[in-house]
Description:
The protein is of the alpha/beta class. About 40% of the residues lie in helices and about 15% in strands.
Amino acid sequence: MTVSKSVFHFQKPINSAPRFESRSLPAPAMAEVEQRSTGPFTVAVCNQKGGVAKTTTCLSLGACLAEQGFSVLLIDLDPQAHLSLSLGFQPQHLHRTGSDALLTNSSLISVSRESAVPGLDIVPANQQLALVDKILYSRKSYELLLKRHLESINQDLYDYVLIDCAPAFGTLTLNALTAADLLLVPIQCEYYASKSLRSVLELTKVIRQKTNPALNYQLLITMYDRRNRICRLIRQQIQGSLSPIMFNTIIEIDTKLKECPAYAQPITQYAPDTRGAQQYRALAKELLDYGK
Ligand SMILES: Nc1ncnc2c1ncn2[C@@H]1O[C@H](COP(=O)(O)OP(=O)(O)OP(=O)(O)O)[C@@H](O)[C@H]1O
Ligand SMILES: [Mg+2]
């Protein structure tokens, strides 16, 4: 599958019509290697750009899958520990976290916790992960650690594993992308999206060559503001050139999604009838259909 090579780029001041300039992006194609037939389907939610709704997507999507009766493990791979916080865990009080699994022989299950959401477990994080990110550089084959941990879990225990990545491309993110079946890239409809997208696609190319030839990826538009003209134009441009690798679902701006972390609840519990909840349910449905 080939996709036209484009990147959204304004040539004129923002009050005139934005123009789309073609440039080369690393080939966004489906990996040709077959997907894993056993074990949970693993999704890494990753974008080097900060604040694009990686954590919100990880939590909301996980909660929607759990709501559908699937068993889901969330893995917080961000030293900021926002995913852990958003489920009510206090990182500074956690004695055992994902760091222990990555640095010692502790299993992921031994450091995982049940959340208050039925069907949703989490491997929490705290600031120690920042140190782990540095320590791993000196370890042989460090990028395979998470993949091996996931393979050693009883393969029937979880249907889905969702990994929340930090806004950086360090050893932790390499672990996530090496372990993943699918890279989900949240993007906002703004000018800077093209730069971060380029970096993610380039990294994916390297990961496919080195550690995970079966890695596929899909883009998800998040925090879409339909009232904003530039946002609408960039959405058209992104969809025009990258539609084969995009989820059809678009996540719009929704204040309720912003409020969720303060109540330590995912949108399915905090505001189950809102647009945000419905849109993440639609994304969950697309993920269920993905690869069928
Ligand atoms: N659809 C949405 N509507 C409104 N606010 C949102 C939406 N999605 C996320 N947010 C808010 O935007 C902010 C950034 O979201 P989030 O923390 O999920 O991004 P992130 O990519 O994980 O950030 P980081 O790169 O720091 O890890 C948060 O305050 C979140 O509550
Ligand atoms: Mg985050």
